[in-house]
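User: quick one, fold this
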Amino acid sequence: MRKYTFGMLAATGALAVSAGLTGAATASNAFSAASPDDGRVGILGGCSWAWPCGEVQNDSGRSVRVSLNWTCDAKTAPLGSSCPKKIKTVKPGAHKGGGDVDVDAFEVPKGCRYHFKVGALDPEESRTAGWYKFNNSLTITITRTSC
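Assistant:
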């Protein structure tokens, strides 16, 4: 059973407010290149009680590697990149982030495709091998993997 933290609930509310003010907030917006003024880029480099931390919820049957410190401007990076730092593993059924822990990115290993949702109401997306940065305040739920 998933536990909801204040940060997760606040992030959901902030995303809903953002969607109402700037148009539909979609999962692809979380990964697309965006200018700082277009409303799709969250605060970079940290989080607080007022701005929830990024989080990865792993509902798949495979462990997921995440980065707690993304050091590049790019939103994506190939495997072996120096962009992700402080790499942690999220076991199946567990989560990392929220509270005062900010997850910045997740990895899809070579030969795999990870399916995920950015928000409870967003459609499922998938990515193949690489690292994927996402905005602070978002919860990425890895729903399934195929390798």
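User: anything notable?
Assistant: The two ends are 26 Å apart (CA to CA).
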